[in-house]
Every structure is written in C-alpha cells, then in structure tokens.
Amino acid sequence: MDFQIREAISTNMKGHSPTEIRSVVEDAIQRGEEHLLPGLGVFFEKWWNMADDSKKESVLTELSTAFAK
Q1: Residues 27, 43: Cα–Cα separation, whole Å
Q2: How far apart are CA 43 and CA 6, in angstroms?
Q3: How far is it, in rounded angstroms, from Cα 28 to Cα 13?
Q4: What is the pLDDT of residues 19-42, one digit of tens each?
Q5: What are the domain boundaries of the chain?
Q6: Taking burial as the number of CB atoms within 10 A of a residue's CB, which of 1, 14, 31, 59 is the most buried?
C-alpha cells in the first residue's frame, strides 16, 4: 500500500466522530468495491498500532473464527 493512501485517509478522517467513522466503514463494506479495501486496511493499521496486546489477541481470535466459517 502506498504511503500517500495512508496519509490521505488519515487526513480525511481526522476529527470524525465514532458514528461518522462507522458510517464510512459500513459504506465501504456495503459497496464491496475492491479499491476501498486499502482504506479499510489503513483503519485497521491505525487501530492495531494503538491497541494493547490484550485487544490484539481478542481481535485475532475473532478474525480466526470469522475466516474459519
């Protein structure tokens, strides 16, 4: 993923409320367009970098379950 994508998304999302961020995520998922996946990856990367090990383990367990289906 190109660094410019990270920077653009970070700049565009700065100051958004949790409700606004949820709307962006749900819209990207609903559209199902491949070009939106890097943006969701930036969201995950931002979260991952600030999460503690307990939160990371929890989400990894949930992702493992989701991909097992």
Answers
A1: 14
A2: 9
A3: 14
A4: 999 999 999 999 999 999 999 999
A5: 3-68
A6: 59
Helices (H), the chain: 3-13, 18-31, 37-50, 53-68
Q: Which amino acid, one-letter code, is at 68? A: A
Q: What is the pTM of this model?
A: 0.85
**Burial readout 53-69 (b: 16 or more C-beta within 10 A, e: otherwise):** eeeeeeeeeeeeeeeee
Three-state DSSP at 34 gives helix
Q: If we measure between CA atoms, which residue out of 49, 58, 14, 53 comes closest to residue 41?
A: 49
Phi and psi dihedrals of 28, rounded to 5? -60, -40
